[in-house]
Amino acid sequence: MFTQDKLIGFINLDSKTAGFYTEEYGILVQTFANQAATAIENARLFVLEQKRRENAETVRQATTALSNLLDLPSLHAAILEWLQKITPYNSASILMVEGKHIRIAAARGLPFPEKAMGMVFPSDNILCKIMSKTNEPLIIDDCNEDPRFERWGDNTNVRGWMGVPMITGGQVIGYIALDSHSPAHLHKTMLSPPKPSRIKQQHRSKIHVCLQRRVNGLKNWKS
Fold it and tell me: Is the pTM of this model over 0.70?
């Protein structure tokens, strides 16, 4: 099944009769398969657009809620709570830059939070340096295979990890660390929803036309 010159799948037909399928059948089914592929791709794009809108609304709600909090403990707790709604995690922590050091200011889901809370380490930590340089999230698919990862607070269950720099006024003031017990579970797209420009306008138009036809069909049926 091809759409936009991209192979997205196959249709498999079986028959109990030997030699049943002919070249004519092949041409006919191929034509149908390409039409089906277009419909499947449009449905995928529609789901992506819906997910993007849902993520954007969640981020908007989170921003509104956080802007009303002024004390740091409540703010940190709210940040970790909203993050769980944006992207599921097993444990998470907030790391604040304090001069030449970084301190774990808040945590959620850690097996031994008392060992991690308030922990201080040098700001030249390799992972933090990378995030500060790129101003982008950093992902480790499998912490067991990456020597750069340090298990703060005896959190031995972490396999997948994502760090995100907190930037304001062009300056990194801290980091958010998300942990997963499954490798390769965290993705940048979780905190960076797909941009509308990635969904081609022609596909969005096709989706709109299809939906409009369904609505019109329902109206005609009811009348």
Answer: no
